């Protein structure tokens, strides 16, 4: 019951965290964009997305730890768990040192990395940002063990609460610094301090609340070969995600400059928030998925049922967001970021519509990793992502950010929409039942879509009051329609509980 409460509480707090993040972003991000200026905001986005590639030096060990921890914990072998912790701490620490070395080597070649489209002043700022971000990344790696240990113990309420506090405190520190003229360097420096503080909190929680044990004796380094073999394909999948969602900014920076990166960066930020609404609920099921694979005999049936149940909830939430954004997103982008960011609306739509397919199926991705059947997916996506880069470059030269987004969308539809669903079926997951269930749920979208088209045809006045009112009206009609035409009995029960709690 305690673990069920942690899952429910974690899921609720995940959406609360996302809601607070989006609310803060609505107020804070446009102020940050205006205080930084379009050029420096684009520079900050460009450098941040590039340094994020150093995060790939995790090599998939974070996800790999979860699998081996679940196996040892199931056998109740505490000594092996302690030795596993010690071995992974050494691995993560070594990765942190490697990331620091690689980062500082790359710092010497910022001119070559970011190209001729940046001015000398922008290159100097980029160099400083690079150094701070590399240090932050290097510190994060050794402390990653404590984060994954907390998640492996399903203490989701703690992690989500920390994230909420961080999100709420952030603008109260950042905005005064930006108003004093400290620009993007201050943003990155404060982020570095945040990461250190959160790492210290996680370490304290692990040792003092979870009684975590770390032993450097009897470490089974012979396991590293099988761990590395498992982790490599997780790592390959992470490379694909970085290519699909971050490489576009680098291509745009090389071909069009920082202003085009800023426009794409706004769309990318909205797309990130959209993806978070999906992973917020699926992330809390990762330990359960590993347990199903480790313990249950008819694992495919249980995994399919979980995939359908969670996928429907994700589809309900994402369906509201993507259809609502299609109808009022243009007005939102103009009011939120400014008229010069109108193209962000079109780029966002191109990014989020095809992304909906994998986002309602990410339980399946976690199941592949738990079953050690993720190799095909990783190799397939890697090949398609390389094709994505090759396609995005000429499209980006022609249409800047929109062209890059089209290349990414094509890759997502081909890989996530068609081939991976075939692979799920080959592994025994009942994908036909999944899509039949999603199709049945889609009947509830007919009425709100008709309303949305009317809203789109009749040009709405450009002010926040009209935008908020439109969102509220559309949301109410959406959920009423879904309740009567789409929800199953279980979902109606959830919905009635929420409504009753709101009434009380």
Structure, described:
The protein folds into two domains: 1-221, no CATH class; 232-504, no CATH class. 85% of the residues lie in helices and 0% in strands. The protein has helices at 2-36, 38-51, 61-74, 78-107, 110-114, 120-152, 156-179, 183-208, 223-255, 258-282, 286-295, 299-336, 343-359, 362-370, 375-426, 431-442, 446-457, 464-485, 489-503. Helix 12 (299-336) packs parallel to helix 17. The chain is globular and about 70 Å long. The protein starts with a helix and ends with a helix. The mean pLDDT is 82.
Keyword list:
504 residues; mainly alpha; 2 domains; 19 helices; 85% helix; 0% strand; globular
Put the structure in a nutshell:
By secondary structure, the chain is an all-alpha fold.
Give the structural class.
mainly alpha
Question: Can you write the helix and strand succession as a string?
Answer: HHHHHHHHHHHHHHHHHHH
Number of domains: 2
The chain-level mean pLDDT equals 82
Q: Estimate percent helicity.
A: over 70%
Number of helices: 19
Main beta sheet: strand number and arrangement?
Answer: none
What radius of gyration results from the CA coordinates? 23 Å
Quote the distance from N terminus to C terminus.
Answer: 25 Å
Number of strands: 0
Beta-strand proportion: under 5%
Task: Give the low-pLDDT segments.
Answer: none
Shape: globular
